[in-house]
UniProtKB/TrEMBL annotation:
Keyword Kinase: yes
Name under which the protein is recorded: Bifunctional 2-dehydro-3-deoxygluconokinase/2-dehydro-3-deoxygalactonokinase
InterPro entries xref list: Carb_kinase_PfkB-like, KDG_KDGal_kin_Halo, PfkB_dom, Ribokinase-like
Source organism superkingdom: Archaea
Keyword hit for Transferase: yes
GO molecular function, one term: kinase activity
Family: Belongs to the carbohydrate kinase PfkB family.
Gene3D superfamilies (UniProt xref): 3.40.1190.20
Keywords: Kinase, Transferase
EC number: 2.7.1.178
NCBIfam families the record matches: KDG_KDGal_kin_Halo
Pfam family, one: PfkB
SUPFAM superfamilies registered for this protein in UniProt: Ribokinase-like (SSF53613)
GN (gene name): kdgK1
Organism of provenance: Halorubrum laminariae
Length: 321
């Protein structure tokens, strides 16, 4: 009997190059190199929290492509990769320069002509999707190319036909496309999404939604028939609407060492808890704890475990009492 895969994700993973803190991109002589991508961050975070997770993507069959795969496997992720000709494609990269106020953190993308831009559903090893209980992707992937957008739609449809619960994190990136183009593309996909994760600022800017988080969640659920809508509100926490019931969750205090990947850790915590049978309220609590923990860890991936989550949740409960 073929076992059930807890979670399948699909999307681009790049190599992240960062100079030492305090140094500038234009003068540094060294870079720290790590893999980073929204969907693989979710897969890795969920795997570290006990889920059986598979990441689907396309990479060049090169040392850099294999570097991405080996790093994700080190976090317990199973990988399903379409390998491309390294002479005709590349691994996307991004450069992250950490900076405090008033300079701020700077991100420079170099992802044109990455292998993922030519991906087609037929070339991906999608066997795990046929037995997956959950499928997850984000709004970054369809922004990369027409083929990536078509493949995103095809995998969402296939996951639905296989009976998986499909989640989608809006994850709008202004450097990839404008709000109007993004909105049209997102709304074309919404018929194939069961759970939507959306920051309140993006719901307003990209989806044209007004009002507070609860109003936004209710409007989106009514218009697109989502089973669950999770609206994140930054330092104000998050709201989830499921079956007409509203759940609210605050943030856990954290000293921020590296904020990149916080949203992906939130999604990973939420999905992992639901995979383990948790309620929406419990999943929100795990999500908030995972997000707080990620801020203390360098790199894109939340290198945490269930004991870390329990420490945050139980510690907050002790303070509340």
């Amino acid at each position: 009997m073929v076992g059930v895969t807890d979670l399948v994700t699909f999307g681009e993973t790049m190599l992240r190059l960062s100079p030492p803190r305090g140094e500038r991109l234009e003068t540094t002589e060294t870079f720290d190199v790590q893999a980073g991508g929204a969907e693989s961050n979710v897969a890795a975070g969920a795997a570290r929290l006990g889920a059986d997770a598979v990441w689907l993507s396309k990479l060049p069959d090169s040392p850099l492509g294999r570097r991405v795969v080996s790093e994700l496997r080190s976090h317990g992720v199973r990988t399903g990769v379409a390998w491309a000709d390294p002479d005709a494609s590349r691994v996307g990269t991004y450069y992250l320069e950490h900076g405090g106020d008033p300079r701020g953190t700077n991100v420079v993308y170099d992802r044109a002509d990455a292998a993922i831009t030519t991906v087609e559903a037929e070339e991906l090893p999608t066997g795990a999707l046929e037995s997956a209980s959950r499928f997850h992707t984000t709004g970054i992937t369809p922004a990369l190319s027409e083929r990536a957008a078509a493949t995103t739609a095809a995998l969402l449809r296939a996951a639905g036909e296989a009976g998986a619960t499909r989640s989608f994190d809006l994850n709008y990136r202004a450097k990839l496309w404008d709000p109007e183009t993004a909105r049209a593309a997102y709304e074309d996909l919404f018929d194939h999404v069961d759970t939507l994760f959306v920051p309140r600022r993006d719901a307003r800017r990209v989806l044209g939604r007004e009002g507070d988080a609860v109003t936004i969640a209710n409007g989106l659920a009514a218009d697109f028939d989502f089973e669950t809508v999770v609206v994140t509100r930054g330092t104000e926490g998050a709201v989830a609407l499921c079956d007409g019931e509203v759940h609210e969750q605050g943030v856990f205090d954290a000293d921020t060492f590296d904020a990149i990947g916080t949203g992906d850790a939130f999604v990973a915590g939420y999905l992992a808890k639901q995979i383990h049978g948790g309620s929406v309220a419990e999943a929100l609590e795990w999500a908030a704890a995972a997000a707080a923990l990620k801020r203390t860890v360098g790199g894109d991936i939340a290198v945490i475990d269930p004991d870390d989550i329990a420490g945050v949740v139980d510690g907050a409960a002790s303070i509340d009492r």
